[in-house]
Specification:
Elements lengths: L3 H5 L4 H4 L9 H15 L1 H5 L3 H11 L9 E3 L6 E8 L10 E8 L6 E10 L5 E12 L3 E9 L8 H16 L2 E4 L5 H9 L3 E2 L5 E4 L14 E4 L4 E2 L4 H12 L3 E4 L15 H9 L11
Parallel strand pairs: 6-7
Antiparallel strand pairs: 1-2, 2-3, 2-12, 3-4, 4-5, 5-6, 8-11, 9-10
Helix pairs in contact: 6-8, 6-9
């Protein structure tokens, strides 16, 4: 098993797995395609040769799509600070949560992990893993592939909070939130709370509700639909209202960009966020740090 400090950054066995058959991770292929286009576009305008640009990228240690984000760790431990969730009231399982982006070594399509960690301590240096969301990255979309919440934190509504953070980031980046095939009934039900609808209803699963607590009314049995993709609601205002309910007054803010040196400078931009969530170097402004 991976050491705990690797898991905190989402660099577990899956994230470290080498691509099969000697291939390269799909996100690297995207950077290569972009590098070729950039050599014919903005790099030529900067007066840099391709060799000089590639040397700068190696020295920086981040793919072009993430170079404007602050890097945390290095090598297989590398992650990039994307955002922070501040609840309206801290307590219980909810306190400040940092969102760290880690690259996934899927050889067939570009994917990433959004790792959610409690930033404890006065300086936020002590991190406790909450869970993660696995995403596939389209040119203008972010597709949910799976989700994990630490076992001891389950049953407390955290999954909806983490989904709401992802959905708010998609809205900020002007990306369409979608899903790939969803096989977990509870995740399917959580998506339905945000207005997502199943593409088909061929595989219903009956969910038995937990026994009611004293003074509570028993909840009727619920049905979830699995082995299907889920589609977001057409009404953006409906989705935004559902996100607000799940966040319960909490605020999602973009992390400081790489050039603010952690001193409370300008946050990353929505363009930086779109570059990161699609793993495509779309940014017009590059800040090497």
């Amino acid at each position: 098993p991976a050491p705990l400090f690797l898991l905190l950054l989402g660099a577990g066995p899956r994230a470290r797995q080498a691509p099969a058959n000697g291939g390269i991770p799909a996100w690297r292929a995207l950077q290569g395609e972009a590098a070729q286009a950039e050599a014919e576009g903005w790099r030529a305008l900067q007066g840099d040769t391709r060799d000089e640009a590639e040397s700068a990228q190696r020295a920086h240690g981040s793919p072009p799509c993430l170079r404007n984000l602050r890097k945390v760790g290095s090598g297989h431990n590398a992650a990039w600070h994307l955002a922070t969730f501040e609840p309206s009231q801290s307590g219980g399982v909810l306190s400040r949560i940092d969102v760290l982006l880690a690259l996934d070594a899927n050889p067939t399509e570009p994917c990433l992990l959004l790792n959610f960690v409690h930033a404890d301590g006065a300086d936020g240096s002590k991190r406790t893993r909450v869970g993660h969301i696995l995403l596939a990255c389209g040119p203008s979309s972010s597709a949910l592939r799976g989700m994990f919440v630490r076992e001891e934190l389950r049953g407390q509504g955290l999954s909806r909070v983490l989904l709401a953070v992802w959905l708010r980031l998609c809205a900020s980046a002007q990306l369409s939130p979608t899903t790939q095939q969803i096989n977990k009934p509870l995740l399917a039900r959580s998506l339905e709370h945000f207005g997502f609808v199943p593409a088909n209803r061929a595989f219903p699963v009956e969910l038995k509700p937990p026994p009611p607590r004293p003074g509570e009314v028993a909840v009727a049995q619920r049905t979830a639909f699995t082995r299907t993709r889920y589609q977001p609601p057409r009404d953006a205002a409906q989705l935004d209202a559902a996100i607000d309910v799940a966040l319960a007054g909490g605020r999602v803010s973009l992390a400081p960009s790489c050039d603010s040196a952690g001193t409370g400078g300008l946050p990353a931009t929505s363009n930086d966020l779109a570059c990161a969530l699609t793993l495509r170097p779309l940014c017009s402004t590059v800040r090497i740090c």
